[in-house]
Design brief:
The protein has about 650 residues and is α+β, with helices and mostly antiparallel strands. Helix content is about 55%, strand content about 15%.
């Protein structure tokens, strides 16, 4: 039950690929626009002459506005009115009537938003590319004459035989021809413990062989491996999700087109009826300013951004306003098991001593922990940790040996102690009492470890993955919010999954799933019209996180790919914050509706005044800016601690 470290082919550390912020042109232009704006603003406020701050504002307009303007014009060529183009026009219009600062602020906000979106896209692409590095670059291929050769894994063909030594990564998907090993395949299935692989068993590229040597026949080309399929699924799902927009953006497209047409009409109709050019232009400019979507934009963003900031203070990193809006729409949840609902670390649940062994619980644990102490296997560490937690001394072991797939043996205080797999050891001892104990523990979803002393069974240790303390409360809260009980999706074995599900209060359990199977479950739920929230932590969860309406990753133990693919991250792994942030999102959405009503009342009133009478330009600007300030302040209400507490109260579940 020990694991070795090897620097042979395939056992290599892979560098993490991560795009730097300022490697992106969008980020550089947004930063330049922000700097120019921040240089100009104090000069203007301090009463400096226009020649001092005017050029700086101009540079801010150019740096932050040229790319949205270009994109908007290209969209216009395709007969689509991009809201960014209208923002640029509104900013220029504001500058034309003396509101240079307002236009500059609008430019900076849009440039920064575009830079953040580009960064998120680049980081996700980094993680997808980095996933390919999980598969080793080389493998040891066995030739027909028995010789070995190290070749790139891309050169492996179906039918080739490769040698996997202890500590190496498996170079290709295939089946074991000979030998045995304990393979950590958490990246593929999410199972918390290494899995014994013997003749005929399937192994996956990128998984790590802990002990034992295996000869593996390659069954799949590198482009068709499970790792490669995970990459393809993440990329496909991410492209699909990228088309999701804020509701307000969908409204803005029609609104923007209407404003453009209306502005032209306000200018052209009076001019055609004999009005003077200056008066018609002033009225049209006033109309465009009072009808511009600034208040509409601020009606949406401050509540969502305030909710993002509030969630961040409580350990939930929500990556964008669109994500915060989507969180409030979820009406179904699918939860991973290992590392999500559980701690992801095995621990001893019980120690059972057989009658006639002459030992008590602590005595059995002392002998077992001594034998396991030299081992690096996760189960061995769980046994040693349990002994220390109980204050049981760990004696010194001698003559330690480890057999892959079976267990360890050692001499402790003059007694020969063996600890390992009941399947292997009970075949030799045929002890009915021990077999009954093992069957009982395994039926309850525990991993059973048999302890022999001097060749006779002495007891059985039960080991399991510990559920997080707040798992049950989170499941109850999500069921209350979504109106349906969450689904458990896991690559772990059905018995362990059922045990955890019973503890957490989940009735629908889908166990033994590969990454593509998890995606299938999510898509099946979504085919019924559900908006599914997926919570996971591993590489194997990434495709499901990407395919879901909203994906949430565990922050502390989450893989790079899961963290980048997910829409939100639990920085402190506090599950109960998930239903709270869903409730906060719903409050933000309600506040957005309030703001849209306020903005529409102001805009319609000012527009009617301008069209039916003569709206003085300063008064129009004052009304426009006033509505913008009101909706902005209303949205900032979600920054307060009370907003989080009210959202938590909305959950109506014990914390």
């Amino acid at each position: 039950m020990s694991s070795a470290v090897n620097t042979a082919p395939g056992a290599r550390d892979t560098p993490r690929r991560r795009t730097r912020v300022f490697a992106l042109p969008e980020a550089r232009w947004a930063a330049a626009a922000t700097v120019f704006f921040l240089l100009a603003l104090p000069l203007q406020l301090l009463g400096a002459p226009a020649w001092a701050w005017g050029p700086l504002y101009g540079l801010a307009y150019i740096a932050g506005g040229w790319e949205p303007a270009r994109s908007g014009l290209l969209a216009l060529r395709d007969k689509t009115l991009d809201v960014d183009l209208l923002m640029i026009v509104a900013a220029i219009g504001a500058a034309c009537i003396g509101q240079v600062m307002d236009g500059g602020l609008l430019i900076v906000i849009f440039a920064t938003s575009g830079a953040l979106e580009a960064l998120a896209t680049a980081r996700t692409a980094d993680s997808v590319r980095g996933l390919l590095d999980l598969a080793p670059a080389t493998a040891t291929r066995l030739l027909a004459d028995g010789r070995e050769e190290v070749v790139p894994t891309t050169d492996l063909a179906v039918g080739d035989v490769i040698l996997i030594r202890p500590g190496e990564r498996v170079g290709a998907d295939g089946r074991v021809l000979s030998g045995a090993g304990e393979v950590d395949q958490a990246t593929i299935t999410g199972e918390p413990l290494p899995v014994v692989k013997e003749v005929g068993d399937e192994v996956f590229a990128g998984t790590v062989n802990g002990t034992g040597a295996m000869r593996v026949r390659v069954d799949r080309d590198a482009s068709e491996s499970v790792i490669a399929r995970i990459v393809a699924m993440v990329e496909e799902a991410s492209r699909t999700k990228a088309r999701t927009q804020l509701f307000i953006e969908k409204v803005e497209r029609r609104y923007s087109a209407g404003i453009v047409v209306a502005t032209l009409a306000v200018f052209a109709v009076p001019l055609a009826l004999g009005a003077d050019l200056t008066g018609a232009l002033l009225r049209a400019m006033t109309f465009m300013i009072v009808a511009s979507p600034c208040a509409v934009v601020l009606a949406t963003m401050p509540p969502l951004l305030s909710a993002i900031a509030n969630a961040g203070r409580h350990g939930v990193l929500v990556k964008s306003a669109a994500v915060m809006e989507r969180l409030g729409q979820v009406d179904a949840a699918a939860l991973d098991k290992t590392g999500t609902l559980t701690e992801g670390t095995p621990y001893v649940t019980e120690v059972r001593v057989l009658r006639g062994s002459g030992l008590d619980d602590n005595g059995l644990l002392a002998l077992a922990s001594a034998a396991e102490h030299p081992s690096e296997h996760p189960l061995a560490r769980a046994v040693v940790d349990a002994a220390r937690a109980r204050g049981v001394g760990v004696p010194v072991a001698e003559d330690f040996t480890s057999t892959p797939g079976t267990g360890v043996t050692a001499t402790v205080r003059g007694r020969k102690v063996a600890v390992g797999s009941p399947i292997r050891m009970l075949d030799q001892t045929r002890s009915p009492d021990a077999a009954a104990l093992v069957a009982e523990l395994e039926t309850e979803g525990r991993t059973a470890v048999l302890v022999e002393v001097d060749g006779s069974p002495a007891g059985v240790i039960g080991i399991a993955d510990q559920a997080r303390p707040e798992a049950a409360a989170t499941v109850t809260a999500l069921a209350s919010l979504t109106g349906t009980s969450p689904v458990l999706i896991t690559g772990d074995n059905p018995r362990a999954a059922e045990r955890l599900a019973s503890e957490a209060g989940i009735a629908d359990v889908r166990a033994g799933l590969l990454p593509q199977d998890k995606v299938a479950v999510v898509r099946d739920l979504q085919s019924t019209g559900r908006k599914v929230l997926v919570v996971g932590d591993g590489v194997n969860d990434a495709p499901a996180l990407a395919a879901a309406h909203t994906g949430v990753a565990m922050g502390r133990a989450g893989s790079d790919l899961a963290l980048e693919t997910a829409d939100a991250v639990l920085v402190r792994d506090e599950l109960i914050t998930i239903p709270t942030v869903v409730a906060l999102s719903r409050r933000a959405r309600r506040l957005v509706v309030q703001n849209l009503v306020i903005a529409s009342v102001f805009i319609s009133g000012l527009v009617i005044w301008d069209l039916a009478g003569t709206l003085p330009l300063p008064l129009g600007v004052l009304g426009h800016e006033g509505s913008t300030v009101i909706v902005g302040l209303n949205g900032l209400r979600l920054l307060r601690e009370a907003a989080w507490l009210r959202a938590r109260a909305d959950v109506k579940a014990p914390v």
